[in-house]
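Why should sequence recovery work at all? Because a backbone constrains its sequence more than one might expect. Tight turns favour small or flexible residues, buried strands favour hydrophobic ones, and helices have their own preferences. The token representation captures these environments compactly. In the example below, the structure is given first.
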């Protein structure tokens, strides 16, 4: 029996052991993500958000904020998209409303992120945002993430940037947009996250 064991060990000496592929824990796919993207392996069972679901949540957010601004400003927030006003000598009115629109969205994404670890639109679609290690995002991370999303509110430019970000989400194993990569965040289905990563999600 010992002789058979010695022969087996010698025959395997020149081959890589398949067990060594998984020495660091987690699935092989997650190790590939970690090695290729430089991120920590995701917990088992985590379902990453698709681009379509993220677009739907973003659209819901814009509708929520714009509706509130429509009520508060008596509909004057529409001047932010008034091309005639932008091309007139009174363009500063359009600029002021566009600024209000941007600041309102930034505050909305930042404050809902701090309070719920997601926006109301993302909550509607059962999504949550966590750091790459599964912890809650810091205030500075929410600041940066919210600010970088504002470009998606600029007409025409948002179509190009949005399509580019969707392409990055579909190409990356981690389903991260460029904003996610810069901030160090992951967007996932909230109920798929492990309990330790769901404690701060509301």
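From this structural description, the recovered sequence reads:
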């Amino acid at each position: 029996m010992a002789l058979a064991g010695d022969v087996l060990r010698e025959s395997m000496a020149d081959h890589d052991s398949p067990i060594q592929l998984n020495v660091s824990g987690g699935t092989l796919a997650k190790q590939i993500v970690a090695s290729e993207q430089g991120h920590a392996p995701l917990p088992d069972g985590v379902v990453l958000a698709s681009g379509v679901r993220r677009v739907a949540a973003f659209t819901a957010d814009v509708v929520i904020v714009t509706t509130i601004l429509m009520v508060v400003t008596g509909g004057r927030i529409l001047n932010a998209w008034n091309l005639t006003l932008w091309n007139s000598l009174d363009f500063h009115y359009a600029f002021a409303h566009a600024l209000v629109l941007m600041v309102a969205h930034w505050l909305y994404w930042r404050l809902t992120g701090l309070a719920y670890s997601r926006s109301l639109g993302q909550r509607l679609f059962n999504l949550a945002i966590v750091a790459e290690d599964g912890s809650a995002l810091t205030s500075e991370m929410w600041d940066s993430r919210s600010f970088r999303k504002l470009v998606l509110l600029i007409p025409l430019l948002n179509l190009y940037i949005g399509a580019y970000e969707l392409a990055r989400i579909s190409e990356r194993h981690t389903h991260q947009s460029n904003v996610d990569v810069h901030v160090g965040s992951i967007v996932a289905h909230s109920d798929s996250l492990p309990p330790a990563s769901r404690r701060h999600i509301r």
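A few observations help interpret the result. The beta strands are 127-131, 185-189.
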